[in-house]
What does this fold into?
Amino acid sequence: MTIFLQSLDYQLWHIIVNGPRMPTRTIDGVVSPKPENEYNDNHFRMLQLNSKAKHVLFCAVGPNEFNRISSCDSAKQIMLVHEYELFVKHDNECISDMLSRFTTIINSLKNLGKSYSNQELVRKILRCLPKNWTPK
It folds into this structure.
């Protein structure tokens, strides 16, 4: 997927990895979103690239996954939701490393405005454990 997105436009991958930068302005030391009538060509280009990245990702997933990511605002958020949904414990990974990786994904999603309840997170962790953990 990385090569495909980079081949379309290298900035698509950059937007997915780093997230879109929404145009802002600073008035009296307060940063706020810029109104659309103050956008320049570069602002519109960045917003268009985010939309293009979202479109490519929407086309790359199946209908079940699409239902989970269709409400995401950015391509980065889509990729993180995708990582969350496909999260599993690797064979050679200890529990603390798995939890650290899981926490990184969850924190990144929270930073982008997507959060899950503690109940959902616990269920996700329990479901991703291998079968040999069932007796424990």
In short: The helical segments are 2-8, 10-18, 41-60, 63-69, 75-85, 95-111, 118-128. The mean pLDDT is 86. Residues 13 and 129 are 31 Å apart (CA to CA).
